[in-house]
Amino acid sequence: MQASWNGQVIAESGDIVKVEGNAYFPPEALSSDCFRPSSHRTVCGWKGEAHYYDVVVDGQVNANAAWFYPDPKAAAEEIRGRVAFWKGVTVSNG
């Protein structure tokens, strides 16, 4: 699967875990130059605390468009460290 934004592929992998309709990519699948850490956090009752990345392509910033759970609750262990997308990032079968 591929994740793209602003016409650029920002993540690509065949190793996807789907949870609640979201495709979680392994961290090594990300194009590291397209991501920068964000201080934004949210909490999910069963997954735990989500951390975010801003997606950056050609100088354009999509704030908090990628999220991950660095230390998920036991029920969400399968997505530990994996990254999912929203806010206009397209996820497709490539």
Task: Describe it.
- This protein is 0% helix and 53% strand.
- The termini are close together.
- The strands form three sheets. Strands 5-6-7-8 form a four-stranded antiparallel β-sheet, with no helix packed on it. Strands 2-1-9 form a three-stranded antiparallel β-sheet, with no helix packed on it.
- It has a single domain (2-81, 85-92), classed as Beta Complex (Metal Binding Protein, Guanine Nucleotide Exchange Factor, Chain A).
- A hairpin with a 2-residue loop joins strand 6 (48-57) and strand 7 (60-68).
- With 94 residues, it is mostly beta strands.
Can you give the helix content as a percent range?
under 10%
Largest sheet: 4 strands, antiparallel
The number of E-state strands comes to 9
Please name the CATH architecture: Beta Complex
Class inferred from helices and paired strands: mainly beta
- Kindly report the name of the CATH homologous superfamily: Domain of unknown function (DUF427)
**Into which percentage range does the β-strand content fall?**
over 45%
Rg over C-alpha atoms, rounded to the nearest angstrom = 12 Å
Strand order of the largest sheet: 5-6-7-8
Roughly how many Å apart are the termini? 5 Å
Stretches where pLDDT falls below 50 for ≥5 residues? none
Principal-axis shape: globular
Structural domain tally: 1
Instruction: Return the string of H and E elements.
Output: EEEEEEEEE
What is the CATH level 1 assignment?
Answer: Mainly Beta
| CATH T-level fold name | Metal Binding Protein, Guanine Nucleotide Exchange Factor, Chain A
- Average pLDDT confidence is 97
- Counting DSSP H or I runs of 4 or more residues, the number of helices is 0
